[in-house]
User: Which sequence fits this backbone?
């Protein structure tokens, strides 16, 4: 799994990151409600008091998981949007990236996706909620730009973004990176379906969806695991 991004003002490494990584995996495997400090402490051979010292509450720990995840996703999105100019390429990049997260960061991605509903209105999630909204707004803007440029057929950009997120954010319920289809083939199929629905020509659809194409390579470079 990719090393977690450390929140500003906090030291890198040590027990704190170890605790958060273990908690994230427990949330991914069993859900937030069934994850608890006792199991994390037992696995790591420490007291629950140590976890409380570092994080305070379970709610605060989940908020940090969500914030770290979305901070990195936003950084990556800005990076690949800065390297890709065409709306169809940009939409495809979001799809390639979404499947890549599920493949290369399964625990953090599943933990985020299965508990994303908690960003709706729960206290303490304000930062993560704002980050999620900022990411959504990037996607909506790309979809709207495509319509205005005549690349996409007219339609509601916000609704289209929900269709896009719906296919990607529920991957945790069925996606197996070692399954029948390779992750890059899943991404390509998603791209083809989405871009055809937006009215993009077949030649450009094939290029944007291509697992070995320039869009997929750009995403792979931007989203490469950090050492």
Assistant:
């Amino acid at each position: 799994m990719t090393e977690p991004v450390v929140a500003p003002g906090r030291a890198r490494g040590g027990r704190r990151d170890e605790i958060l990584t273990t908690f994230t995996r427990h949330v991914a495997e069993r859900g937030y409600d069934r994850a608890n400090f006792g199991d994390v402490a037992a696995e790591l051979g420490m007291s629950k008091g140590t976890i409380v010292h570092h994080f305070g509450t379970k709610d605060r720990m989940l908020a940090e998981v969500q914030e770290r995840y979305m901070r990195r996703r936003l950084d990556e999105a800005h990076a690949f949007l800065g390297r890709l100019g065409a709306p169809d390429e940009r939409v495809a990049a979001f799809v390639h990236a979404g499947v890549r997260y599920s493949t290369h960061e399964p625990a953090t991605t599943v933990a985020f996706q299965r508990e994303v509903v908690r960003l709706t209105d729960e206290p303490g999630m304000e930062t993560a909620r704002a980050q999620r909204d900022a990411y959504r707004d990037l996607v909506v803007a790309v979809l709207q730009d495509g319509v205005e440029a005549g690349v996409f057929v007219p339609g509601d950009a916000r609704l289209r973004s929900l269709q896009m997120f719906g296919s990607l954010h529920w991957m945790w319920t069925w996606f197996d990176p070692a399954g029948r289809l390779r992750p890059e083939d899943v991404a390509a199929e998603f791209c083809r379906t989405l871009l055809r629905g937006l009215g993009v020509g077949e030649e450009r659809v094939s290029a944007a969806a291509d697992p070995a194409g320039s869009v997929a390579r750009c995403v792979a470079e931007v989203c490469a695991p950090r050492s």
